[in-house]
Structure formats: C-alpha cells, structure tokens
Amino acid sequence: MSSQRFNTFVRFLIRWEGATNAKDGEDTEATYLRAMPFAFSNHRADSGGPTMMGVTLHLFTLWRMHICHLPQPAIDDLRNMTFSEWQDIVRNCCWLPLRADLMPYDCFAIALADWYWHSGKVAVLKAQTLLHAEPDAVVGRKTLFAARRLMSTRERGRQTATKLTETRREWLMCLAERRPKDRAFVEGWNNRLDALLAMFNTLDLLPGE
Questions:
Q1: Model pTM?
Q2: Which CATH superfamily is domain 102-209 in?
C-alpha cells in the first residue's frame, strides 16, 4: 500500500514538474524520461535557481556531495539527472522525513508532501497548526497522533486534505503579494492546486500503515 501511495505522489510530481501526463500502462520511469526535455528550468524570477523536475541545484549538490560522496555537480549533471536518482531524492528528502506512509489517508499525505516539496518546512508548520499539534516543523509521534485523531473517518481525511491545500493557496497568494516577481507563477500554482484537489476524489483514501 505504501509503495502505491508514494508512486501516486511521484507521478503527480512528474505531471507538474515535467508537464507530462502518464500514458495508459506506462511505467513511471518511462514517463520521467519523456518529461525530461520539459522539466529543466532556470527562470530568472525563480529564487530557487536552476531546477530539474523540482530539484534545485542547491539540493542536488547537497545530495551528491554529502549523501552520495560524489564530486560537486554541474548544471548539466542536474539537467541529466536519472530517474533513479531523482526518485531517491524525492523519497529521502521529502517523503520519509514527513513519514508520509504513516499519515492517515492518501489525500492528506500527498497534499502535505507536495507542499513540502514545493515550499519546505512551512508546509509542516501549517499542517501542525491545522492538526492542533505542536508547531515544531518536525513530523514525529505527536503530529501523527494528532493527524489520526482529527482524521478519524475518510470524509474527515478528505476535508482536512482540502483545507490544507486551500491554506497553501492562501499562503502562496500572500507570498506573491509580498514578492511581486512571484506573480509570474500564480496561474501555474493555482492550476497545480486545482489538480491536487481534483485528485482527492479519485484516490482510494487508504489509511496509513
């Protein structure tokens, strides 16, 4: 079950970071390879700098040098990142720190993971506030307990995931107000969040392990 949840998240990321939908029967790596030509970005308004499928050059450098003990990567290394390495970064730098396999219900786990992937620890802080958990930006036993207590049914799971996503939208709109250069991304942000909300209705709403 947990691998199915993670794979659903990975396919959603490829869709939005690589502007590519999976074909019927296509495995995830094949979709990634088709998306590669569209997944590299170095937008002058993006404070993250060069980015490949959502992985910034800064994160990629930390991963290569401090986790893999490899030489400092160049931008071309980022642009040509393999599916296996990208998926390992998603799993180890996003999915596992959030303990997403243990979160109640697919929709909430994926909503939290997508925000964290996009914006970092603010996602955890906002989620903890929503869950009435201590806002320490770390997903531990207390946060998991608070999530399970609040999302005691499938309907409450979907409602909480929806509320988290709308909280994210409000936060992003405030960000664009404070930083005018980010207004270029508002339409894309809203399209992504609308797709996320629509996906909640297609998920099986499986509880966490």
A1: 0.93
A2: Chitosanase, subunit A, domain 1 (1.20.141.10)
